[in-house]
């Protein structure tokens, strides 16, 4: 056996397990594997999980914060304007350099599946080109889906529709949209129709920036649900953000959630960016821009989490940690029940896999041997401590090894260590 992980705590099992890996796949999962591995790692009872899934990030804008200027107002519209200024001087090399650095951050945090949006309104499509090239260059280490994302709208600019189709022809995996920035409600609906027409023509998934506004009159999620059902694309369509849902009246929200469930729409919430960008004009009381995660989960809708913006004009902080975004969501979405906290862990693992339509994901016999050993005994501890990924394994090979911090406190003649664990 090429690699054996000993004493792994798996999420749904009480006993510890040994995981045997050969030729990049899980070949044995037993309480004790008698064979010896060429390489062995003792997980020591720590939680071992399939890799985290980054459901929604913008690798093209990541790490550009302050360039050419900082987003002082913090609004989404100013973020789009600053990103537009940055794009004017863009080069493929510069996008690839910052995007690659961000990918390495995500890998170090245990993320090996990423769905990135690539702005497809840039006339030379350098952003799309750059991210598609990176996807190929990094494929031994991380799986990347690229969304062709018409940042400034499909109908609001004359070239956008053509550029979007060109981006799809270049190899984008997923087709995006942003109906709420089109000129009118009617254009927003038409833009969704265009996305579905392209998706069916090129057999692609769909992930639309949907109702990413505080405006409770922004109601495009229902249109997306309708087209998912009409086109038989149930399960293949994602509505990212849906922050306006926070502000809908409860009767409409209840109807909408039923439609989303019926159409098997995946919802992605981006806790950090949504909290920062939405309801900026509220004054007080200040509503928060989060979709209704508890109600969606209760209704059986698939919800996953994205970091969205990592040090860019839309979100100045972030380090590519799914645990950080999940921790934030627990607080902002009131998901602190004893059975809810472990469930939030699904939003950055198996639910993300469903959103991305992934097969071959999970610690199961025959699957690709991708895993993360966390410095935590369970999901609760990982979410509380934002635990380090001690080892990250890709296709049976260790790609990340992290030395966990050791803290010593001197109390007179006594020295004690602290690791925050209980
Ligand atoms: Zn986004």
Main β-sheet, in a few words?
A: 8 strands, parallel
Which structural class fits the helix and strand makeup? alpha/beta
CATH homologous superfamily of the largest domain?
A: Metal-dependent hydrolases
Q: Tally the helices: what do you get?
A: 13
Backbone shape:
globular
Helicity range of the residues?
A: 25-40%
User: Which CATH class of the largest domain applies here?
Assistant: Alpha Beta
List the domain count as a whole number. 2
CATH fold type of the largest domain: TIM Barrel
Give the strand tally: 18
Low-pLDDT runs: none
Would you identify the CATH architecture of the largest domain?
Answer: Alpha-Beta Barrel
Oligomer: single chain
Spatial sequence of strands, sheet with the most strands = 6-7-8-9-10-11-12-13
Radius of gyration: 22 Å
How much of the sequence lies in strands comes to: 15-25%
Mean pLDDT: 97
Bound molecules: zinc ion
Distance between the termini: 35 Å
What can you tell me about this protein's structure?
The protein is an alpha/beta fold and 422 residues long. The protein folds into two domains: 3-50 and 362-407, Urease, subunit C, domain 1 (Roll); 52-355, Metal-dependent hydrolases (TIM Barrel). It is built from 13 helices and 18 strands. Strands 6-7-8-9-10-11-12-13 form an eight-stranded parallel beta sheet. The chain has a four-stranded mixed beta sheet with strand order 3-2-1-4, with no helix packed on it. Strands 5-14-15-16 form a four-stranded antiparallel beta sheet, with no helix packed on it. The mean pLDDT is 97. Residues 56, 58, 117, 209, 240, 308 line the site of zinc ion.
């Amino acid at each position: 056996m090429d690699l054996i992980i000993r004493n792994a705590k798996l999420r749904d099992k009480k006993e510890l397990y040994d995981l045997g890996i050969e030729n990049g796949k899980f070949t044995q999962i037993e309480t004790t594997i008698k064979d010896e591995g060429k390489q062995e790692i003792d997980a020591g009872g720590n939680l071992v999980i399939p890799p985290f899934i980054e459901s929604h990030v913008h690798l093209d804008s990541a790490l550009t914060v302050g360039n050419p200027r900082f987003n002082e107002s913090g609004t989404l519209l100013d973020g789009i304007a600053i990103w537009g200024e940055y794009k004017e001087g863009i080069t493929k090399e510069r996008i690839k350099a910052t995007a690659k650095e961000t990918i390495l951050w995500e890998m170090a945090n245990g993320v090996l599946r990423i769905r990135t949006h690539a702005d497809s309104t840039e006339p030379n499509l350098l952003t799309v080109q750059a991210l598609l090239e990176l996807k190929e260059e990094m494929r031994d280490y991380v799986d990347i889906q690229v969304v062709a994302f018409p940042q400034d709208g499909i109908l609001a600019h004359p070239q956008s529709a053509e550029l979007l189709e060109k981006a799809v022809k270049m190899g984008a995996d997923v087709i995006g949209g942003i109906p709420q920035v089109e000129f009118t409600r009617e254009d927003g609906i038409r833009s969704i129709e265009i996305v579905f027409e392209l998706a069916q023509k090129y057999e692609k998934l769909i992930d639309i920036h949907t109702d990413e506004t505080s405006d409770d009159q922004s109601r495009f999620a229902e249109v997306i649900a309708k087209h998912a059902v009409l086109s038989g694309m149930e399960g293949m369509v994602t509505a990212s953000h849906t922050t306006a849902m926070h502000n809908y009246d409860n009767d409409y929200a209840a109807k909408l959630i039923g439609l989303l469930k019926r159409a098997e729409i995946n919802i992605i919430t981006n806790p950090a960016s949504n909290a920062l960008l939405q309801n900026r004009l509220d004054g007080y009381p200040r509503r928060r821009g989060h979709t209704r995660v508890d109600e969606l989960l209760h209704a059986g809708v698939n919800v996953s989490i994205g970091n969205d913006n990592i040090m860019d004009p839309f979100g100045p902080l972030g380090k590519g940690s799914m645990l950080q975004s999940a921790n934030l969501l627990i607080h902002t979405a009131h998901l602190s029940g004893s059975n809810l906290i472990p469930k939030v862990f699904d939003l950055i693992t198996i639910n993300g896999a469903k959103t991305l339509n992934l097969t071959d994901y999970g610690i199961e016999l025959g699957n690709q041997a991708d895993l993360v050993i966390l410095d935590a005994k369970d999901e609760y501890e990982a979410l509380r401590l934002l635990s380090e990924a001690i080892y990250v394994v890709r296709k049976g090979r260790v790609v990340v090894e992290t030395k966990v911090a050791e803290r010593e406190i001197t109390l007179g003649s006594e020295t004690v260590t602290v690791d925050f664990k209980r």
